[in-house]
């Protein structure tokens, strides 16, 4: 996908012409996160509506892990309240126990290690190489518009067993659904269109299962029970945008960080076993998704702050990932640091189901870029012209551009 293709997609969704101010664009939230962690790790915010309940934001690592681990006190049902209209009524990320445990056991069959190994061999490497083929002879590229924006959509299409040539349509639906806060009507339309598209595929897989994730979902059985239609369609409508959006952003973040820390990029280039820890450090340093939200089921106290039952509690994952109480020199990007578990994939019962797929996709993509593009480096002139950096809104962060060059034979 070219830069023009990305712009056309954004234009169609009414996104491209919004200014950074209109999008609530934030270049660097971390200084404010640091101040709040120090002054008030759990902050009460008054409702924007007269008489509405207050909400609470958690900035520290310790309190964030407390919230994410304690699913009894901090319920995930608030996610269904917010996203149920576009994802469906039975979203796994919005379930509490015992429904969540049972549902997760059913859908997790689609993410078994042998399944991931099959996708890596037959799908991910091929998709990555085909995209690189499209620009390798030029000696320059924008890796966002020509690589990171496209490859997760193609991979998820293949994983689901959908025609790869339809991936741009899946991107349109995914971007539309994720943009629910800016355009509710468009999000509902995209959700409905995606459901209609998937119904034909799901019906066909029930009759003739194949080697794909949708077939795994329709044939999965646990204790004699199968997933019902609402569970299947809710999961698929969540997975498509989540699998595209987060991997697109996390792989872009890691590339940006390595390209702007050339000594660490060189270390990975010559010692590929460093790549897994580089991936984890990239996720810690620049979480692609900044936050997740819960709702309290009972009165509770967190960091000496009294929180009434029924209150929304937002954990700022990106702030927790830079808490000096949990990480040494957290404001430094350092792939050599002692590994400490970051929170970008969540924690506790709702730990991201697709984390192994996301890691594998990023590893394959980075290896291919380093193998095929000798002396890959940032195009400094283009980077200055485009003001290349990582930024985003209150939910997502990633670079808008990654102009690179390499040595041609």
How would you describe this structure to a colleague?
By secondary structure, the protein is of the alpha+beta class. It is built from 17 helices and 12 strands. Helix content is 51%, strand content 10%. The protein has a 5-stranded mixed β-sheet, sandwiched between helices. Strands 4-12-9 form a 3-stranded antiparallel β-sheet. The protein has a two-stranded antiparallel sheet with strand order 6-7. Helix 6 packs across helix 8 and helix 12 crosses helix 14 (275-285). The longest helix has 31 residues, at 229-259. It starts with a helix and ends with a strand. 43% of the residues are buried.
Helices and strands, with pairings:
Blueprint: H1 3-12, H2 30-39, E1 42-45, E2 55-58, H3 61-69, E3 74-75, H4 77-87, H5 99-107, H6 113-133, E4 140-142, H7 143-148, H8 151-160, H9 167-178, H10 184-207, H11 213-219, H12 229-259, H13 262-270, H14 275-285, E5 291-296, E6 300-302, E7 305-307, E8 312-316, H15 317-320, H16 355-372, E9 377-378, H17 380-386, E10 390-392, E11 397-399, E12 403-405
Parallel strand pairs: 2-8
Antiparallel strand pairs: 1-2, 3-5, 4-12, 5-8, 6-7, 9-12, 10-11
Helix pairs in contact: 6-8, 6-16, 8-12, 9-10, 9-12, 10-11, 12-14, 12-16
